């Protein structure tokens, strides 16, 4: 969208453009396709100066945020930027000669913004149904944000997760150096994790039990153990030593991460219950972390006397 090349400096013309801009945004937000069609017709001959009218991307972001799936479908067919990219209509180009920093804050657009607004909006499944109708790959990359599935999993959106998986999204993908199973294992429920497993996510090697232990997710841990997780797996990271040889450094087992945990709401009683759960499922107490500590030694160092008492009550010593 833009402004006429001549006369746009007059106060009356500026006011008219401001009014048109506001109406375009409101119609996109409301999904008012007839009104939007008339407004777009009225501005179709204007130059694309984003200082005066919102860009195609902003109208799409606005409609996506409000879950206006049919409005998105209409805009895909009507906006010049979408028509110019028939295989990527959800990512219309910025007006010629402009970058993201040139766009006024009130019409803020950003990389993959339409997809992100759809994920965080009111009808993500409806929006992605339209996206897929127009050829979106279910594993489309979102840079540091991973993929749509990674975002659905990290925000614990079960319906969107299930829909993306059904359309071919990779359940064994990663997000921020963690497996998607590991991301799901942090969530307060195990529904998303179960959906990933049901669509082929591989539990062994996912380190999801490490995440479940760190966040004291007993139900999730139970699910993982039922699908092949090893309660005594020693998790590790790879790093280069002084001679630049790649080595694996042991970080500890699930019991270590349960002792260390605390990055969520909860208290000593909940942590103790999770430690009891692991011990009851056969967790070994002699495995060591990168400091050479057993879980009880780690608990002593961290001053977690309640955990020490739980372990010692089970006959665990140093």
UniProtKB/TrEMBL annotation:
Keyword check for GTP-binding: no
InterPro entries for this protein: Ankyrin_rpt-contain_sf, Multifunctional_regulatory
Keywords, comma-separated and alphabetical: ANK repeat, Repeat
Region (Disordered): 1-26
Region forming the signal peptide: none
Domain of life, source organism: Eukaryota
Protein name: Ankyrin repeat protein
């Amino acid at each position: 969208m833009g402004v006429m090349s001549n006369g746009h400096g007059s106060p009356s013309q500026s006011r008219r453009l401001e009014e048109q801009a506001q109406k375009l945004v409101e119609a996109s937000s409301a999904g008012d396709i007839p009104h939007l069609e008339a407004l777009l017709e009225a501005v179709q001959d204007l130059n694309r100066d984003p200082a005066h009218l919102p860009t195609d991307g902003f109208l799409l972001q606005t409609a996506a945020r409000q879950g206006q799936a049919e409005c998105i479908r209409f805009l895909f067919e009507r906006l010049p930027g979408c028509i110019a990219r028939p295989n990527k209509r959800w990512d219309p180009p910025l007006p010629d000669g402009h970058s993201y920093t040139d766009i006024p804050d009130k019409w803020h657009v950003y990389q993959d913004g339409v997809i992100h607004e759809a994920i965080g909006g009111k009808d993500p499944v409806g929006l992605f149904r339209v996206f897929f109708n127009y050829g979106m790959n279910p594993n489309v990359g979102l840079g540091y944000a991973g993929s749509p599935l990674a975002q659905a999993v990290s925000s614990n959106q079960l319906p969107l997760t299930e829909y993306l998986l059904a359309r071919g999204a990779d359940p064994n993908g990663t997000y921020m150096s963690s497996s998607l199973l590991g991301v799901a294992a942090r969530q307060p429920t195990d529904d998303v994790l179960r959906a990933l497993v049901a669509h082929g996510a591989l539990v062994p090697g996912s380190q999801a039990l490490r995440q479940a232990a760190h966040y004291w997710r007993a139900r999730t841990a139970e699910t993982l153990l039922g699908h092949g997780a090893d309660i005594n797996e020693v998790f590790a990271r790879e790093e280069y030593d002084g001679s630049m040889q790649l080595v694996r450094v042991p970080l500890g087992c699930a019991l270590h991460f349960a002792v260390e945990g605390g990055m969520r709401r909860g208290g000593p009683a909940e942590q103790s219950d999770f430690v009891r759960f692991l011990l009851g499922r056969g967790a070994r107490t002699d495995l060591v972390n990168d400091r050479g500590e057993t879980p009880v030694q780690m608990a002593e160092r961290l001053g977690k006397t309640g955990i020490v008492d739980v372990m010692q009550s089970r006959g665990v010593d140093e």
